[in-house]
Amino acid sequence: MFLMLLRLALTIFAAFILGKLVSKLRLPAILGWLLAGMLLGPHAFALLDETLMEAGWYTVAVHCLECAVGLLIGTELVWGEIKKTGKQILITTMTQSMGAFLVVTLVFGVVFYFAGVPLYLAVIFGGIALATAPAPALSIVREYHTDGPVTRTLIPMAALDDMVAVVVFFSTISIVSAGLSEQQMPAYIIVLTVLLPLVIGVLTGLLAGWVLKKERGKAATLVLLIAMLLLSCAIGLMVNTYWLGDAGLNFMLIGMAFSATFANIVSQKRLEQIMHAFNPILGFAMIVVILNLGAPLDYHLILGAGLYTAVYILARACGKYFGAYLGAHITRAPSTVKRYLGLTLLPHSGVSLVFTGIAVSTLSGPAPACAKIIQGTIAAAAVINEVIAVIIAKKGFEWAGELNKSKDDADGEAQLQPKAE
């Protein structure tokens, strides 16, 4: 146990240092964290090996930190601001999500038709493709203090996008599974996977709002917030263990719902005090969550990436970009949202790897060849796309003119990390 903790501590420290070095090149620090995960993960130097990553305490810790990262989304979901752009965000979320689903499904439908691969696999690819990993883009928002129409659209969209992804993917895999094995995932599982994180987060968030509303010292505020956050995570873990099994909850959504609830109860001044106290933990949580995203990625797959991987990356990028453009056009969003929002939606690992694991598990019995195609294609795409997507996402914010905007806040409390030099 001690050696595992030591290896984990060394890995986190190495990720922090590599992030600093990468930021010196004017690239997002998250790129360094991802690379550290790949280099020190099970497929390279294995400082962070499979034994450690499969340990129960490690899984619990990562889920708790995913809840913490959710605060970066939830504390921006103040109803007074959301209702101004709610229609725009909802429509654009649907167009960019379903855009990726439809484009990837149609493109692979054609490719698989000529390749002699079962066409249902194209639908599964589409279901996996619509998921967006919010943590990389949010890390860029945090590191570069971005603010503007693109940032304010992206943050609430990060929460909605995951909910759409869960509904579409589990519906898709349930239908395919029923056709192959005459067994179907119960519909209530799909509903619960979406609703339970929100219910858990809202209920504990109401308690947190009542506890945190009264002004207290920084230490007391931090202790109470952590206690409430751990309560949210503990309930989610119990639901996962005793109820849902493989169809696990999204803990970032729990953290998002939790923080969105108390953010709408406390005053704006009190919310700033709470987040100012929590900032150091949030910074640590971002590093560990991104490191955990990078560790399962096998860099060897870059060399073996083939046609399917290239088609998948390009088709998904087109679906996301033009879907976001269409939604922004329909809702008459600012021109920067039309042009650059899609670029910030390209990061893809995390949720997509969870979906891939479920799809492979579902198909490994009735269609092992199809399971192998999914595993190889998505795994290779995750490695290649994640590195490229982080750079493109940063460029999207830059071209939109939103870098280093929130640093001008009155007392600088919105700053969560020193500006990369």
Please tell me about this protein's structure.
This protein is 76% helix and 0% strand. The protein is globular, with a radius of gyration of 21 Å. It has helices spanning 2-24, 29-40, 50-53, 56-74, 79-115, 120-129, 134-143, 149-181, 187-212, 218-244, 251-263, 268-294, 301-304, 307-330, 335-340, 351-363, 368-399. It is mostly helical. Mean pLDDT is 84; it is low at 408-421. It is built from 17 helices and no strands.
Summarize the structure.
The chain is mainly alpha-helical. The protein has 17 helices and no strands.
What is the element string, with H for helices and E for strands? HHHHHHHHHHHHHHHHH
User: How large is the radius of gyration?
Assistant: 21 Å
How would you state the average pLDDT, rounded? 84
CA-based shape: globular
Instruction: Describe the largest sheet.
Output: none
Strand segment count = 0
Number of helices: 17
Report, as a whole number of angstroms, the end-to-end distance: 38 Å
Structural class determined from secondary elements: mainly alpha
Considering DSSP H and I runs of 4 or more, what fraction of the residues is helical? over 70%
**Which regions are unreliable across 5 or more consecutive residues at pLDDT < 50?**
408-421
Hey, roughly how much beta strand do the residues contain? under 5%
